[in-house]
Amino acid sequence: MKLTMTHERLLISLISLHSVIVGAMFMAAPQWTLRFAGWPGIDPVFFAYQAGVFHFVLAAAYLLEHHRYRGISVLMTAKVTAFVFLISATIIHPIPWAVWTSGVLDGLMALVVWWVHRAVAVAPAPVG
Fold first, then answer.
1. Residue 127, in any domain of the structure
2. Is 10 a member of any domain?
3. Could you tell me if residue 86 is inside a domain?
4. Fewer CB atoms near the end CB (10 Å): N or C, the chain?
5. Total structural domains in the chain?
6. pTM > 0.85
C-alpha cells in the first residue's frame, strides 16, 4: 500500500485524539485515572489537572505544526522524550504498570510517525 499525505494526516490526528483523551481523563476524573494507572490517587489534584492541560497543549501543537508546515518535530520531540523518561523512570525505580506501558506506546507512536512521514516524503508527487 502506498502511503499518502492523507494517511499521515490521519495518523497525526489519531495521536492528537489520544492526547486529548488522556488529558480529559486527567481533568475530568483525576482520582480514578491515577488509581486505574496503579497509584492510590493524587493529592493535591492540581498536578493531575496540570498533566491534563499539558496533554491538550501537545495535541494542539501536533495538529498546528502538521497542518501548517507538514512538520512532525514537536510530536517526535515529545514522544521520544516521553519514551526515554518513562522507560528510564521504570528502570530506576519500581513504578506502576501505566508508566512503562505509556513509555512503550509513546516510543511506538514516534516510530510509526517517523516511518510514515519518511515514506510520504520520498513518494513521487502525483501527476496532473
1. no
2. yes
3. yes
4. C
5. 1
6. yes
- Under a CB-based contact definition with an 8 Å cutoff, are residues 42 and 96 in contact? no
Distances 59 to 2, 64, 68, 76, 127 between C-alpha atoms, Å: 26, 9, 14, 12, 33
Q: Is 18 helix (H, G, I), strand (E, B) or coil?
A: helix
Half-sphere exposure of 102 (CA within 13 A, CB side): 19
Single-letter amino acid, residue 22: V
72: which 3 cell numbers? Answer: 512532525
Alpha helices in 4-92 (DSSP H): 5-28, 30-37, 46-69, 73-92
Residue 23 belongs to domain spanning: 5-122
> C-alpha angle 72/112/87, rounded to 5°?
95
- Per-10-residue mean pLDDT for the chain, 128 residues long? 95 98 98 97 97 98 97 98 98 96 98 97 72
